[in-house]
Amino acid sequence: MSLSLVTLFLLSIMVFLGGQVLPGNVGRAILGPFADQRAVDALNHTLGVDRPLLTQYATWIWNFIRGDMGTSYIFRSPVAPFVIDALGNSMKLAAVAFVLVVPIGILGGVVAALNLNRPLDRIISLGGLSVTVLPEFVTGIILILIFGVWLRWLPISAAWPKNAGFFTQLYYLILPSLPLFLVLFGYIARMARSGMIEALDSDYTRTAVLKGLPWRTVIWRHVVRNALLPTITVIATQTGYLIGGLVVIETLFRYQGIGSLIFTAARGKDFPMLESGILTIGIVYAVATLIADFLYSVLNPRIRLGSDQ
Amino acid sequence: MSAVQTTSPPQDDTRRRSPMAEVFFSLMRSRTFLVGLFIVLFWVACALFGEHFAPYDPLADDIINALAPPSSEHWFGTDQIGRDVFSRVIVGSRDILTVAPLATLLATVAGTALGLLTGYFRGIVDDVVSRILEAFMAIPVVIVALLAIVALGTSKATVIVVIGLSFAPIIARTVRSAVLAERELDYVAAAQLRHESAFHTMFVEILPNVIPPILVETTVRLGYAIFAVATLSFMGFGIQPPSPDWGLSISSNYGMIGGGFWWTVLFDALAIASLVIGVNLVADGVHGALND
């Protein structure tokens, strides 16, 4: 809890430094090198960038908390609606990726552990690890070529037609979610596998087997349940990577999410947009971490019962 | 344990190899390591001598032959202004193989120093620095890099510094935990009793003993650094044109793959994939050899 707040605070300072202090004279940057110095000063005063840094930071954060994310340099209109729209779109993409990867990743790890050191385990472990280390845009390009260009099964852009229904949107989101799926699959499968191996080797599993429970019950009631605990934590920590991946994937698939919003803002040096985008995903990350902590404590009886150690 | 043992116990087995040789032979037996090493060395050779055996100048355009599919003349076809894709893929390894290792080196040096300091002094320094590093690690590298590069301007040096500094905390964490175990050993106490300076104890006494985990972490980080540099170049915030860099080539050509010009991006993508997997195989081998 406190850690994610520290992270958020640190991120806000970095964003503030990166977006408002390091770039130098904002008015000059907006108006260009030939603008009159008085006009630059006037604009700087209107934007409030000539005030002390601490005041600027405090005002900026306070406004952000109240939902005022500033005015976009490029669109000349409030940033908040753009960010909220984009966040919604990104959530859809992330949700598709998560819904696919969590069960399949866990299943992969369980299957690998039950076939320990046999060919199936090798394929899942090595394959999962190889795709995990590849940059998302590399797997993305290869997937686009296979499914979009050669087989023509899926659209190569995530921009669905206007007023598309749920299933059409889903159809357009499958290809963009696959690279994220591949990155996450390796991590989740590996955690589930090692959790399973540990659980299979434990005393309670031996007890369950020796008291004559059917193998299926032992696996699902005793082994998988315990193996999943560390996996949940991994899934939560992967949210950070998922968000980093979104920036790349949304650019590659021309999808109007928070990642491509940050990318466009960075390209156009639209600092209010960039800062709000990054801070927003920081908050999403912090919330995801909190939810994971909560889930972990709900699922782990040792923590749930509040016993000391 | 009252007397300080100064000589190592006599070795019965005269054929016993030194630890270094042991690691070396273990690496030479590891198939993953050798395959990875072969891939990495192939790309290093391309980076160093690529232009001597590339059939064309990777930067020379030839508009008449633009977007030609692979043929005996152009093995990997040509891109949208007629540059030979095969030559570009060969020479394209150069920039990423300069930027990523330098970033990793910076991360290793900074991370090792931080890890030694926090692990050795513990207490408040450790608490504060560790919390900050942990918080920092939660932020995706791509985001940090994007922000820093937009603020500082794009150049190879910026990319090296930004990626190097974002990876330093991760290396620091590994070094710190190794140092925590190491500092309880007698030789550290002996150094302290001799009134060696803290600096001497950290860098001359402890550092040589924590090299193995640092080595493993560095090879793993190199894989991630290649990942990060390629991604940033693809986004337009890394290596800049006219470099034939792989990520950059993909970013300038992928807009046309809907038209079926697959050869303009596929080979670059496979090149990145092979390099990243190669480095990871090496890292896996090193990890295995040092943890036997």
Describe it for me?
The complex is a heterodimer of chains A (309) and B (292). Chain A is mostly helical. Chain A contains 13 helices and no strands. Chain A has helices at residues 2-21, 26-31, 37-47, 53-65, 80-114, 119-132, 136-150, 166-200, 203-210, 215-252, 258-267, 271-299, 301-304. In chain A, helix 5 (80-114) packs across helix 11 (258-267) and helix 10 runs antiparallel to helix 12. In chain A, 40% of the residues are buried. With 292 residues, chain B is mainly α. Chain B has one domain: Orthogonal Bundle (MetI-like fold). Chain B is built from twelve helices and no strands. Chain B is elongated. At the A-B interface, helix 1, helix 7, helix 10, helix 11 and helix 12 of A face helix 5, helix 6, helix 10 and helix 12 of B. Chain B: One of its GO terms (cellular component) is plasma membrane. Chain B: This is ABC transporter permease. Chain B: It is found in: Cell membrane. Chain B: It holds the Pfam family BPD_transp_1. Chain B: Belongs to the binding-protein-dependent transport system permease family.
Brief synopsis:
Chain A has 309 residues and is mostly helical. Chain A has helices spanning 2-21, 26-31, 37-47, 53-65, 80-114, 119-132, 136-150, 166-200, 203-210, 215-252, 258-267, 271-299, 301-304. The longest helix of chain A has 38 residues, at 215-252.
Query: Which value, in Å, is the CA radius of gyration of chain B?
Result: 23 Å
Overall shape of chain B: it is elongated
Report the top-level CATH class of chain B: Mainly Alpha
What is the helix fraction of residues of chain B, given as a range?
Answer: 55-70%
Give the radius of gyration of chain A. 24 Å
* H and E order of chain A: HHHHHHHHHHHHH
The rounded distance between the terminal residues' Cα atoms of chain B is 28 Å
Q: Which class of secondary structure composition applies to the elements of chain B?
A: mainly alpha
CATH superfamily of chain B: MetI-like
Count of domain modules of chain B = 1
Subcellular location (chain B): Cell membrane
Main location (chain B): membrane
Family (chain B): Belongs to the binding-protein-dependent transport system permease family.
Membrane topology (chain B): Multi-pass membrane protein
